[in-house]
Write a structure and sequence with these properties.
Blueprint: H1 8-18, H2 20-25, H3 31-43, H4 45-51, H5 56-94
Helix pairs in contact: 3-5
């Protein structure tokens, strides 16, 4: 016997197809960003498939949010590292010169 419900990946593909005209209407620079959002959704397809929600778009949106949260965390971590490096450099530059002969 076959499955009675389409797989989440099938549903996600159908959502992407329904939004194809929207994608085409986007500026060329935004089209890769649009594509990336669906890549994010596909990254969590296994978890979304287990949910088997009536509206697969909700799972896709949460998956996109999770990926973007991860990117934000990475950027915040990198920013903290850069700020610490700049502060350490500024401390070295503002330290009085060594007076030992």
């Amino acid at each position: 016997m076959g499955r009675t419900n389409p797989t989440y990946r099938d549903a996600l593909r159908a959502i992407e197809e329904r939004w194809a005209e929207f994608r085409q209407a986007l500026r060329r620079r935004d089209q890769p960003r649009f594509d990336r959002l669906f890549e994010y959704a596909r990254e969590h397809a296994d978890a979304s498939g287990l949910l088997n929600h009536q509206n697969p778009l909700l799972s896709a949106l949460l998956s996109i949010d999770l990926e973007q949260e991860g990117r934000l965390d990475d950027h915040e971590e990198r920013l903290e590292e850069l700020e610490a490096a700049v502060a350490a450099r500024d401390d070295q530059e503002s330290a009085p010169p060594d007076s030992n002969p």
